Amino acid sequence: MVRDAGLLYHICDLPKNNIPWPVAQESQIQEGDCGDYWPTGEVFMDIPAIKSDTSKLWVYTPGAPLRTTFYSTKMEERRIIKAKDHEKAFGKWNTMEVICWGNQSVHLVNGKVVMRLYNSHKNENGKKVPLTKGPIALQSEGAEVFYSEVY
Q: E strands of the chain, at which residues?
């Protein structure tokens, strides 16, 4: 079993509909998947991505058409895999960064950009509301995780 955690950002609501996490954007911090994107509720993000040749999953691809990602119980509809793996070997410290400006963000692993994300928003009463700020949270899901010098 892989160790799973995440950095939730642009938190805009409390958990609902039996989902244990606050409603937010997530940069995954999971063995082998650091920097992947997940929505943890009814939030949306546009990400340049194409479908992998070997699975139903979408892969971040600079210059590809934007895919609007949304919360779904189907992993292939909600997850976007990072472009390249820049994680260090098991047992070594990794540096995770999420840089946000306006409704855009960038996920970095060990100083390398692994994903650029655009148009962070939620739908409110049928209107598209940009997510440009909000609290962050560090998530740990089913495994021990250590954080050091959180900025």
A: 4-13, 23-30, 37-39, 44-51, 58-60, 66-69, 80-81, 96-101, 104-109, 112-124, 127-130, 137-141
